[in-house]
From TrEMBL:
Residues 180-281 form the Transketolase-like C-terminal domain. The keyword Calcium does not apply. InterPro entries: PDH/Transketolase (IPR051157), Transketo_C/PFOR_II (IPR009014), Transketolase-like_C_2 (IPR055152). It comes from Pseudomonas orientalis. This is Pyruvate dehydrogenase E1 component. SUPFAM superfamilies: TK C-terminal domain-like (SSF52922). Keywords: Pyruvate.
Amino acid sequence: MPASTARAAQLCIDALDTCACSRSSPLYTVMSMAGTLESSRQAWVIRGQSRSRRPGHWPIWFARNAGEKPLLYLHSATSSAQLCALSGQTAQRGILCNDSETHPSPWPKGAQPSLPLWLASHPRCTPYDPASGEEARAIVLAGLRTLYVDGQPGFYYLALHDQPSTLAAQTLDREGVIKGMYPVQRAAGIENVRLLGAGRALEEVMHAAQLLEQQWGITAHVWSCPSYTRLAREAAAVERWNRLHPCAPRRSSHLRDCLAGSRTPVIAVTGYPQSVIDPLAAHVDTRFVALGAGSVQAAAPNRYWIAVLALKALADEGHFDTQKVEDALQRYDLK
């Protein structure tokens, strides 16, 4: 990594650190950060949302420059083909921010099902689905430092929505955000179930936790998971290392560390198709339920389905009356 690029990235980070962070949505937080980076003149900020959706028409003038600067590319790719073309145009470098979720679309999160699969399988891509502006801010800052100060290869991807989050700023664990998972709401007493959510789906997860406590006496521990893919990749890498070094002390992944110490069921929710979460199942040592768009309804599961399936998981473990699961289905008009 050229010293000039690292210096430019550090100046970008310093400029962003001086800006106040309001409790805004991920989209408007990143848009505000883009304005600051433009003013600093130390980064390339490309605004491609209003351009043609044909990749050949997207701005790529920065690629003709000899020296590298930090790149923040705002776009609206809806398919894996578009995203693949864009990553190629950026030489698989930079922070790519997609606001397709904010546009009318027949697809969950505004993207064809192939797009999240491409994100999960691309080895140089680190994908995130932030739930709040604070999470998005932490991810962009980490991307600037990782890619351009530390000189690591690859690119970051953020799915941006425009719904302000109700998450309290003091709950933010920046290290946990980057690793892919951190707690946002702890059970008041002994936890009965653990609920995981990403992006806009986290809001429904938090409402489901309220339903469970107020209507069924079930306490839930809620986690924000900005990157299920990063969690799954690290867990798989750690498992492989342990397999190749059978005589060495075993290593543990962030996912296992977060879920250690409890055998209560885990319900993980995303606005993307369920296949984004399925790889986590091999690394969770308790009953695990993955829920995504298409799991129980065309869109992401709503709070009522999340609550009912949490009750069903508890019933399968013998900790809840199966008849009450039927009652919940009727109560929420899900039958």
